[in-house]
Amino acid sequence: MGYPANGSSEKPLKFLIYGRTGWIGGLLGKLCESKGIDYQYGSGRLENRLSLESDIASVKPTHVFNAAGVTGRPNVDWCESHKVETIRTNVVGTLTLADVCRDKGLVLINYATGCIFEYDAGHPIESGVGFKEEDTPNFTGSFYSKTKAMVEELLKNYENVCTLRVRMPISSDLANPRNFITKITRYDKVVNIPNSMTILDELLPISIEMAKRNLTGIWNFTNPGVVSHNEILEMYHDYIDSNFSWKNFTLEEQAKVIIAPRSNNELDTNKLKNEFPELLSIKESLVKYVFEPNKKTLGA
């Protein structure tokens, strides 16, 4: 795509990462340390073009990673009442960073979201038919998802951007409140719907490899297949806490306690699996990266 793969004759890797205080941004820094990759966190604000240009001039990166963004605390309902702040970071900021990187001839790895689709007649629940990279987003139930779909559409025009559609991220750190597993174990009630999800322990190292290969375009960045809330909680019960129990409720009941509807979907991962054949299915990845390691430390 006009960005040659980083060969051994090229200058050594140096990553500029945005999102120092975020979950993914923090994990990326730790990964770079473990892999011996030189990196620095950006100090500029995404919506401030001059500050981004200043970061790039001082760091001289080979690649830029954007793990900054507004998801809302404690959840995306926050975005419904903070629309301008959400636009400023998720739309204006992301586009500014992509534009600056293009000017400087740099690939931008952008952690985006796959929560821009919902099951429909062409992609029924549990059909195994997932949304592909080129499909048009059909979920605009939350303002957060709406801004993410807008920015993805605009970023298609930037040949230097690699858009990674992350969904319901999970990691082996079960104490982290951002972890999807941690969230649902703390809810009073959960819906039970199969979804595509992202195991960060497996996929974040793959995103670094994608940077090395200078891959661009849109990628569904989830593990193959789907897993339901109940299946995860059953694993949690079996591996982590045999006393754990939970209650389900319907989408209609859930709608009464949340402000914005939530996205439920399956993403087609053939493109990612073809590039990285070693990629595990969601259930295999959950066992290998999340539940087995925690079983040893926490005891079943």
Task: Give the helix/strand layout.
Elements: E1 14-18, H1 23-35, E2 38-41, H2 49-59, E3 63-66, H3 77-81, H4 83-103, E4 107-113, H5 143-155, E5 161-166, H6 180-186, E6 189-190, H7 200-212, E7 217-220, H8 229-239, E8 247-248, H9 251-255, H10 270-275, H11 282-298
Parallel strand pairs: 1-2, 1-3, 3-4, 4-5, 5-7, 6-8
Helix pairs in contact: 4-5, 8-11
Short descriptors:
300 residues; alpha/beta; Rossmann fold; 6-stranded parallel β-sheet; two-stranded parallel sheet; 8 strands
Biggest sheet record: 6 strands, parallel
Class based on secondary structure composition and strand pairing: alpha/beta
Along the chain, the helix and strand elements come as EHEHEHHEHEHEHEHEHHH
Query: In CATH terms, what is the architecture?
Result: 3-Layer(aba) Sandwich
Low-confidence stretches: none
Q: Write down the Rg.
A: 19 Å
Please give the number of β-strands.
8
Task: Write down the domain tally.
Answer: 1
